Amino acid sequence: MAFPVRRSRSTVPRRVRRRRFPPAVGRGAFQKRALRESRILSTQLQHALTSRIHIEQAKGFLVHQADISLDDAFRLLRGYSRRTSRRLVEVAHDVVTKQLPVTDLTRYDPDDD
């Protein structure tokens, strides 16, 4: 004669099962976190795009004003940014708005960096 096998509904102990959230609550919390992370990423990407636009405008401005190549224009911006400990996008903004004269940038040799 075989012994009857008693089957449990769950292999998780009862005290642990009580602490679990219902599936809908867990999904809601996951979706809320995913949405928050998505918004943060979107904001970061928008900031990067805006920064890139300012830098590209400044490079174009320098190419036109100083009659140099795009690579040299970027080296000038980057070199000035490093020497003055300012963010590249801030320097680019100042160049485009003419708050920073082009002569201040071209005073230095771009190959020094």
Please provide a written account of the structure.
This protein has 113 residues and is mainly alpha-helical. It is built from five helices and no strands. Helix 2 packs across helix 4 (88-96). 12% of the residues are buried. The mean pLDDT is 81.
Produce the secondary structure layout.
Blueprint: H1 14-19, H2 23-66, H3 70-84, H4 88-96, H5 102-106
Helicity, in percent? 55-70%
Question: How much of the sequence is in beta strands?
Answer: under 5%
Order of helices and strands: HHHHH
Mind telling me the C-alpha Rg?
30 Å
Main sheet?
none
Give a quick set of tags describing it.
113 residues; mainly alpha; 5 helices
Quick structural summary:
The protein has five helices and no strands. By secondary structure, the chain is an all-alpha fold.
